[in-house]
Amino acid sequence: MLLTHQLKESYDCVIVGGGVHGLALAYYLARNHGLTRIAVFERSYIGSGNSGRNTAILRSNYLTAEGVRFYARSLELYRSLADELNFNALHDPMGHLTLGQDLGSCRRLRWRAEMSKLQGVDCEFVDAAEVKKLVPAIDLDGDGLHPVLGALWHPPGGTLRHDAVVWGYARAASALGVEIHQQTEVTGIATAGGRVSGVETPRGHVTAGLVVNCAAGSASRVAALAGVSLPIVTVPLQAAVSEAVQPFLSTVLASDALHVYFYQTPRGELVFGASTDPYPSYSSRGSLEFLETLATSVLQLIPRLADVKILRQWAGICDMTPDGAPIIGRTDVEGFLLDVGWGTYGFKAAPVAGESLAALIANGRPPDIVQPFSLDRFAAGRMVNERAASSVGH
User: SS3 of 110, please?
Assistant: First the structure.
C-alpha cells in the first residue's frame, strides 16, 4: 500500500508521470544508486495513462542493432522482475509471431530475424507450414486476399500484466523512500539561467535540481513547460478485448499486411490491437471504425471468431518520433531530462529505460545502450529508423 506524503519544499529529483517509466526510474535511482529524495508526481492515479491502456506485449525483435540490444536488455530485466520486486507480474513467454503476407514484408521480416540473431536474440523466419503448426486455427489462404507466406518467430516474446508492473515498481520504490504523489499535476516548470529550478503544482511550488519528463502521451505538453520543443506527433492507439472463448491460441499473432495483432489470455479473452489512428489527437475513446477494420482483418486470419463478442475497447496516447525510436537523456535546459517518444513501444521498454536513465543521473554520462536515443540526433541527422519494425506487433 502506498503512503500519503506531505509535499516537501524541495527534492533532489522530480519525476513527472506516475506510469511504469516514471516508477521504474524512481525505483532504479533508489535501489541502484541510493538516491531517495525523489518525488513522483502523477496528475491522476498511478498507471492511469498509457501504462494501464496498452496490450502488455513484450518482444525484442526490432530492426536496428541499437533497438534490438535495447529491448533485449529490457526483456532480460522483465524476466526476473517478479522475483526482484516480490510481486507476481504474471509473465507469460508465449512467443511472438509476425506474419509475412507479401514478398516485401517477408524481406523485412528476414532482415529483422538476421539482425536479432546478430545481437544474440532468439528469432527466425519460418515458412507457412511452421506457422500452421504454431497456430492450427489460422487460415493460411487469408480469405484469398492475404495468403500467409511465412512469419517472424520470436520465442522469447510474450505478455506481462501491466498493472502488476506498475504496482510492483511503486511498492518497491516507496519502500526505499521515494515519495509518490498521486492527484498532483505539474502545471509549470521553473527555470533560471538556462537550468531547472523546480516545478509548480496545485499544492505549491517545489524546488528541484533535476526534473525528468516521463509523461507518456503528454510529453510535448510537459516539455513545453520548460521551453523545450520535441519532434513528436501524438496519436491514439486503440485496442479491444473479447469475451472468453475456448483456448486455441498459444502465441501473440501479428499481421504485417493486415495491421492487426492479438493474443489469448489465460482466462480465454482475446486482446486485440491495430495501427495507430491516422490523425493527431489526445482522445482515449474507441471508435466504431476501428472495430469494423479490426473485425475484417481478424476474420481473414481466424474465420471461426465470427461470432465472438467484443466486451470493451479503449485507446492509449502515443508520442511518435520521426524515426520511431524514443528520446532519452538531456535537453538544452540543464537539469531537465527526457524519457519520452515511445510511440507504440513504451511498456516493453520501461525497465531498461529506468535503469539507463538512473545511471545517467547518478554517473553524469549516458550508458552506451541509450546514447543513440539522445534528442540531438534529429538535428545531427543520426536517425535510428525503427519505424519499419513496428508493424503492429506492439
Answer: helix
| DSSP 3-state of 290 | helix
Give the model confidence (pLDDT) of 134-150 as tens digits: 999 999 998 788 999 99
Q: Are strands 310-320 and 270-276 parallel, antiparallel or unpaired?
A: unpaired
pLDDT digits (tens, 9 = 90+) for 69-81: 999 999 999 999 9
Contact 391, 345 (CB under 8 A): no
With cut-offs at 50, 70 and 90, classify the pLDDT of residue 217. very high
- Domain segments of the chain: what residues? 10-54+162-231+322-389, 92-156+233-320
Same fold, 10-54+162-231+322-389 and 92-156+233-320: no
Residue 1 pLDDT: 56
- Separation between Cα atoms, residue 216 and residue 349, nearest integer Å: 12
Distance CA 85, CA 87 (A): 5
Alpha carbon of residue 175 to chain centroid:
25
Q: Would you say 130 and 153 are in contact if contact means Cβ atoms under 8 Å apart?
A: yes
Residues above pLDDT 70, as percent of the chain: 97
Contacts of residue 380, Cβ cutoff 8 Å, sequence gap at least 6:
none
Which candidate, 289, 346, 340, places its Cα nearest to that of 316?
Answer: 346
Q: What is the CATH number of domain 10-54+162-231+322-389?
A: 3.50.50.60
User: What amino acid occupies position 160?
Assistant: L
State the Cα–Cα distance between residues 159 and 7, nearest whole angstrom: 36
Helices and strands, number each (H, E), in the chain: 10, 18
- pLDDT 10s digits, 165-201: 999 999 999 999 999 999 999 999 999 999 999 999 9
* pTM reported for the whole predicted model: 0.96
Q: Write phi, then psi, for 330 (nearest 5 degrees).
A: -80, 165
Q: Which CATH class is domain 92-156+233-320?
A: alpha beta
Distance from C-alpha of 13 to C-alpha of 8, rounded to nearest angstrom: 12
**Cell numbers that stand for 16 in this block:** 513527472
- Give how far Cα 186 sits from Cα of 42, 142, 225, 283, Å: 8, 49, 9, 20
Confidence at residue 169, expressed as pLDDT on a 0 to 100 scale: 98
